[in-house]
């Protein structure tokens, strides 16, 4: 059994998450506890607090503190064309379906600093779908959304991104899409001219558009199963019949209450298709 | 015997790095099919590789061996490997979570992350095992396991392919048992 210190800490942690919700309306109360506790412990130590209660006092009463804490509460690790096999499967198996639609809406849910969005924009350009597509890139972290909108990444990451792009079946050179200078790679702004960036929470907000493809990778892992159920419900409601849902490499619909409403389209790449007739 | 009168252990966590596959081969395939405890394992593997480790051990073990997926319910008699490039965490609800948080001590998956979250969930019902490895991941994790009243087992450094990891764990956890692989297997069997 957890010991007395851990129990007290848990009380303080729950109070902190409640305080953040009441004051700032960011709802982390149903996030999977193990990871968020680790990250808030790092924040607590970083800000020199003895306890979560002290951190709660700071976040309630010091301006700017919530924005800083949000950097700990949301995980921002991504790559262009992360898991190249996912994008290869989209090119080879999903794109032929998408080509039958006159217009497309694609939702990148939990887009963080934009790596996934630019991957899709490049892929859709290469596959001749860009002109008929509108992208929605959403996240709860305004700072991450700003970075996504700028599309500037450290030049040293381009080697990995270029390799990923090649492995994804890229039909051009990744360097065609960015300009390098001062240690940074700036992606061509034409890539995001068909993108709407928006603050949206999978926890508290509703569906905002009908879409043909939702990509939400390595976002749901931070949620409890209940919260995952809510988010997947949103995706289901947003997707048209036979629309596609892409999850992270180790995420699954198997434990979801919505599992029956999707079929496995490409099992290894975690691509699901919403059933017709729902 | 008092040990057999009450069996307080509810789960096992194992951490290994360089030389770890061979060390695990001396343990996992020798557990009986009806072994009741769940076992969570982090072994450092290169990212961006589809891991073949779980199928490899599933082939030669009597217990079930799987690669963990997000929110998998933890079951006894099953070995869960952390997937490449994700941290593996134990929830209080006894489900497994994955995370793409930054590497810890250059490692993702991190042994410390698994051990610390498992200690938080299982308290004194946990056994932590540190095997061969060339870095110091796992030392802080095993310390957490023992701070919650769990048991710590460390492979004898002299018999380890790489001794840095067991040595770091011994330094962090002086009261852990230092054992050869045979005796670690025996401890795990007796704990169940």
From TrEMBL, chain A:
InterPro entries: Bact_Chemotaxis_MeTrfase, CheR_C, CheR_MeTrfase, CheR_N, SAM-dependent_MTases_sf
PROSITE patterns assigned to the protein according to its UniProt record, in alphabetical order: CHER (PS50123)
GO molecular function (one): S-adenosylmethionine-dependent methyltransferase activity
UniProt xrefs under SMART domains: MeTrc
Lineage top rank: taxon: Bacteria
SUPFAM superfamilies: S-adenosyl-L-methionine-dependent methyltransferases
Name the UniProt record assigns to this protein: Chemotaxis protein CheR
